[in-house]
Design a protein that fits this description.
This protein has a domain of 117 residues: Immunoglobulin-like, CATH 2.60.40. Helix content is 45%, strand content 29%. It is built from 4 helices and 8 strands. Strands 3, 4, 5, 7 and 8 form a 5-stranded antiparallel beta sheet that branches. The longest helix has 71 residues.
Length: 241
């Protein structure tokens, strides 16, 4: 008995067609998933179109608010600048007023000074100590002094003599007095004067370490015997304040 011949036919698909089938299957799966997701959102009340409109509206509001914020920042910068200008103008005016007040006070003091020369109280002739001032120097214990000697007018006679200055205080907590020669800086150890109407005396002095000043005494001794010596005392703290 003759054996039957059987033929097996093997067909091989092209590789590109096989890969294309996979891709199409994958896209079909993704499409199905998206449709299911969108359907679920629609069932839950979500509308993609309305959400897009809402997003656009919110972005417009954000842009408007940012514009308003920028405008407010600009206005604030203008106000700050105006405030600074106003503050500077106020300070300038205040400084000018202070300068005028100081000038008025100085002029009043000068008027009083000249009134004392031209129209003295009483007719007695003599020398006066006027306008004593004291200021701190650049180093510890250093001070600058200045005062004016003036003569009560009773003619054209010139007056001359010597002024003595004494600083009263405590040296290492003990009462002590310093003479002019003890504190003066420079070779001139004597306060000599010579004038007809008035003379300003100025100088620098240095107090020793441990000395606490309390009072300044100025004694004026004219050479002319007819003129009596004059003495005037000043509180140190009032002068230096």
């Amino acid at each position: 008995m003759a054996a039957k011949n059987s033929h097996v036919i093997i067909r091989q698909r092209h590789p590109l067609l096989q890969k294309g089938g996979y891709v199409l299957a994958g896209l079909a799966v993704l499409l199905g998933i998206w449709l299911a997701f969108d359907y679920g959102r629609a069932r839950a009340g979500f509308d993609s179109g309305r959400a897009g409109d809402r997003q656009s509206l919110l972005q417009t509001k954000i842009d408007d608010l940012e514009d308003i914020n920028e405008e407010l920042r600009n206005q604030n910068a203008v106000l700050v600048q105006a405030s600074q200008v106003d503050r500077k103008a106020y300070m300038d005016v205040e400084q000018s007023l202070k300068g005028l007040q100081d000038e008025i006070l100085e002029l009043k003091q000068e008027i009083t000074f000249y009134q004392g020369i031209v129209s003295p109280n009483g007719s007695a002739r003599g020398v006066r100590v006027q306008d004593f001032r004291l200021s701190k120097g650049g180093s510890s214990g250093a001070f600058h002094y200045e005062f004016v000697l003036m003569q009560v007018v009773s003619g054209s006679t010139q007056v001359k003599g010597v002024a003595e200055m004494t600083i009263v205080g405590l040296l290492h907590n003990q009462p002590h007095e310093l003479r002019y020669a003890d504190v003066i800086q420079g070779e001139n150890r004597q306060l000599a004067f010579q004038f007809k109407f008035f003379q300003k005396l100025t100088g620098d002095m240095v107090l020793p370490d441990g000395f606490v000043p309390q009072q300044v005494k100025v004694r004026v001794i004219p050479e002319e015997k007819k003129l009596a010596p004059v003495e005037k005392s000043y509180d140190w703290n009032e002068l230096i304040a």
